[in-house]
Amino acid sequence: RISIRGSGRSGGVLVLLNGRPLNANQYGSQDLNAIPVDSIQSVSVFKPPVPVWLGPGGSDGAINIVTRSGETMKDKEKTSSTAKVGGGSYGFAEGSLSHQMPLSGGNALMSATTTHRDGSRLNSDRTDDGLAMNWNRKASDGSSYEVGGRYYRAEFGSPGPTDNLTPDARQDYQKVSVDTKYKRIIGETGTLAATLYGDSISLEDQSQSGSTSTLEDRKVGFKADTTWSEEAGAWDLRVGALSEWDEFDHTVAGGHHRFRNGVNGQYDRRFGDFTPTIGLRGDHTDDFGFTPGLLAGIGWGVSKECLVKVKGGYTVNVPTFEQLYQTTHGSIDQSRGNPDLNEERVRSYDLGVEYTFAKDRLLQMTVFRADTADLITARRGADLIYQPTNLDSAVRQGVEITGKYVWATGLGSETSLTLQESENKDTGKELPYTPAIKVKETLSYALAGLKTRFEGIIRYEGSRYSQMENLPAQKLDDYAVVGAKVTQPFLLAGMATDGYLKVDNLFNTAYESHFGYPADGIVVAAGIQMKF
Questions:
Q1: Among the ranges given (327-336, 338-347, 468-477, 487-496), the one the predictor scored with the smallest mean pLDDT
Q2: Using CB atoms within 10 A of its CB, is residue 330 exposed (0-12), middle (13-18) or buried (19+)?
Q3: Which SS3 state, helix, strand or coil, does residue 431 take?
Q4: Is the C-alpha dihedral spanning 383, 388, 392, 398 positive or negative?
Q5: Per-residue confidence (pLDDT) for residue 39, from 0 to 100
Q6: Are strands 274-285 and 80-88 parallel, antiparallel or unpaired?
Q7: What is the enclosing helix (H) or strand (E) of 203?
Q8: 156 exposure class (CB count in 10 Å sphere: 0-12, 13-18, 19+)
Q9: DSSP 105-136
Q10: Which of 150, 155, 346, 504 has a beta carbon 3.0–4.6 Å from 523's, enabling a disulfide?
């Protein structure tokens, strides 16, 4: 479950890879598994309301994952490789290999990964395999070209919740993606980035009864973004466009397609210590028609250390094919789509203050609110099958506090605290999977001599309900979980090597993140990663 600022919904989070949308047709939970961890260069998180140039939707935030392209190689004539192998509890095993080298006047990066876990429950085993490649080249005029491809396969059991077990249900998910990107400078201060991309998803879903259904999803898209800046830095203008064709076919739900086109623009203007911004976007799909988007805000640099931001936005979430017809991340024994869903209309606002005391010492506090018409949530029927449905009106509001502090000794602390309340305006009940409190504390320390790195994580999540009726049987208890990781660098046969030991749920806490799916308990993993 992808959650930003305490939201309990994955469908409202926009997931992007190198700026292009991953989950316009599906939730994106499978797509994140498809990205090799070793290939990730950075992850940017955008809190709602998000900038319009990121894409349509994103009412609960956005995540942009940027992968390594090979451009950072210091010596263009040399090659480098990384290998990782590890294992752990519940039959866990992992291995990965990546190789970076010069190729055809550019740089190529290739990687392969595999992981397997037996799981603690019957039929909870899972095997993930992935291949990825990227080639880029920079021309003498400053323009650059990039081509990438990824293959991902996951074969796994669908055990079902404890009150509706499916010990024989299985799923086989495959995805192939291709991306091409072109970047160049326009004039003195302008830039252009254009991406052509395609995805092919195939799912074979074997139900508990033995029947097999298939899902095929094919998507082709084009996204272009231009940025213009005034030479003295007084203003910035971003203009972009997006076009996608998506075709879906399922054994039970049948064939469907969606053609989406959209344009956006955002203007930032600096007046001394004040920077107002205004962004507009408009999208059209052949099944839901025209949907607008808006972002307006202002930033005020009160002092060198203090920054105040106020934002307000409006966005429309068009139901995904996964919500309308059939999901890719749950057995057909447990979930169905709802073709009668309406689009969500979301108004969101926040007021934030950030104070930087010194390098690596800062504090942020943000007050937020979101009002949603026709919010999409899940209802579980008497047959124990989940199906999405619309709530007429819902609200979620609260405060988020984050802080970072690094002592002179090297001990570092990062804290995140979210306090919130939510309400289904029709019934007065809480929204599903929306706890009143969420806390995460991360402590890190490195030994100066041995360079041993220690990291500890404490997570606490308050009680919450799994369904909109808020019945006692639907309530999930609060829980606190502790994790720890130790990393030791050393030389192995002259190669730089990191040995790691990671323990999740150190004190074997019994809890459920999703109703009917108890956590595995203590999970241990250890291994080494070599660079040569």
A1: 327-336
A2: buried
A3: coil
A4: positive
A5: 76
A6: unpaired
A7: strand 190-206
A8: buried
A9: TEEEEEEEEEEEE--SSTT--EEEEEEEEEEE
A10: 504
Render pLDDT for 300-354 as a digit per residue (tens, 0 to 9).
999 999 999 999 999 999 998 888 998 766 678 888 899 999 999 999 999 999 9
Q: How far apart are CA 80 and CA 340, in angstroms?
A: 52
Spatial distance between the Cα atoms of 348 and 345, rounded to a whole number of angstroms: 10
Q: What angle do CA 206, 210, 214 make, to 5 degrees?
A: 35
Q: Give the span between the Cα atoms of 265 and 239, in whole angstroms.
A: 4
Query: What tokens does 297 get?
Result: 């805000």
- Distance, in Å, from the CA atom of 277 to the CA atom of 269, rounded to the nearest integer, reads 7
Q: Which residue has the tokens 């910035």?
A: 236
Give residue 416's identity as a one-letter amino acid code: S
**pLDDT, tens digit, for every residue of 363-398?**
999 999 999 999 999 899 999 999 999 999 999 999
Tokens 């490649």 correspond to what residue?
133
| pLDDT score, position 31 | 62
Contacts of 214 (CB under 8 A, 6+ apart): 202, 203, 204, 205, 250, 251
Calpha distance 405→412 (Å, rounded): 6
Structure tokens belonging to residue 126? 């899972």
Check: CB of residue 96 under 8 Å from CB of residue 130: no
- Cβ–Cβ under 8 Å, residues 223 and 242: yes
Q: Which CATH class is domain 14-170+179-256+263-531?
A: mainly beta
CA distances from 154 to 73, 129, 491 (A): 32, 7, 34
Question: Which amino acid, one-letter code, is at 523?
Answer: V
Residue showing tokens 């190198």: 18
